[in-house]
Design goal:
Blueprint: E1 12-18, H1 33-45, E2 50-54, H2 67-84, E3 89-92, H3 96-105, E4 109-112, H4 122-129, E5 132-136, H5 154-172, E6 179-182, H6 195-200, H7 202-206, E7 213-214, H8 220-225, H9 235-247, E8 252-255, H10 258-274
The structure holds 6-hydroxymethylpterin-diphosphate.
6-hydroxymethylpterin-diphosphate (HH2) binds near residues 59, 136, 185 and 215.
């Protein structure tokens, strides 16, 4: 008899490395390039399957960052990580110039919260780069998106938008098997009325036939559900959301707390495996 039952596949864990001075969850702790590299190293050691590097905060009300600034923040960091690890690197940017520079430096995934809508050449740049792309749903734009989000059927509308963007990407020449979808928790969504039905209805998004990335880590809806817990006290809620994602068949979760999330997903997979 084997000591442990076969574990079922678990979602991959994408660890967040912020190279911004104003990200909501860590207050810009990783703006210093050496600190960002140290954080990346730590996430790799903790079991991150992918690193997601961001140089422009998308928090509601955040000020835009110039492409040159993003490139100055991202490229040395990517090169430094690449010099010591083969971990897949994703870049969280809406700018084709930044995506291009990042891919040249060794990244392989373009994570675009605008689903390749920000610039007129976003779609064709993604096709030309041949990288994987994450197409995320957002209603409105970061500065104003939380003002008055509206949906009749949030899951249906998010799903329809994601399929429309996937088709646009494919028509522009992006290979179908390079496309990820992301429901965009917190992006133009009411904290409770929209984020929760979306998490509850995730299976309808994973059923669309593309790998799905879920980003719920430390987001405001967790604080809204738990006595206004601050961002650094939302680990339990973040893990609960990651497990809900796993149950709905997401391919990856984007998280701050890699060690704890990997552990939770491993235990979940082992329990599922034991269920036979
Ligand atoms: N959430 C944030 C940023 N990028 N990308 C994807 N694909 N999905 C997400 O849910 C997502 C994302 C949140 O942004 P920010 O305010 O910068 O905070 P942090 O990067 O610390 O999560």
């Amino acid at each position: 008899m084997s000591a442990s039952p076969p574990a079922i596949a678990r979602p991959r864990v994408m660890g967040i490395v912020n190279a911004t001075p104003d990200s909501f969850s860590d207050g810009g702790l990783h703006l210093d390039p050496a600190a960002a590299l140290a954080h990346a190293r730590r996430l790799i050691a903790e079991g991150a399957d992918i690193l997601d590097l961001g140089a422009e905060s998308t928090r509601p009300g955040a000020e835009p960052v110039a492409a040159e600034t993003e490139i100055e923040r991202l490229v040395p960091l990517i090169e430094a990580i690449r010099a010591e690890s083969g971990v897949p690197i994703s870049v969280d940017t809406m700018k084709p110039q930044a995506a291009r520079a990042a891919m040249a430096a060794g990244a392989s995934i373009w994570n675009d919260v605008t689903a390749l809508r920000h610039a007129p050449d976003s779609l064709e740049t993604a096709a030309e780069l041949g990288c994987e792309v994450v197409l995320m749903h957002m209603q409105g734009e970061p500065r104003t998106m939380q003002a008055e989000p509206r949906y009749d059927d949030v899951v249906g509308e998010v799903g329809a938008f994601l399929i429309e963007r996937a088709e646009a990407a494919i028509a522009a020449g992006v290979a179908r098997d390079r496309i990820w979808l992301d429901p965009g928790i917190g992006f133009g969504k009411h904290m409770i009325r929209h984020n929760l039905p979306l998490l509850a209805g995730l299976r309808r998004i994973t059923d669309l036939g593309f790998p799905v990335l879920l980003g719920a880590s430390r987001k405001s809806f967790i604080g809204a559900l738990d006595n206004r817990a601050p961002a650094d006290r939302r680990l339990g809620g973040s893990i609960a959301a990651a497990l809900a994602g796993a149950a709905a068949g997401v391919a990856a979760v984007r998280v701050h707390d890699v060690f704890e999330t990997v552990q939770a997903l491993k235990v979940r997979a082992a329990i599922e495996g034991a269920a036979g």
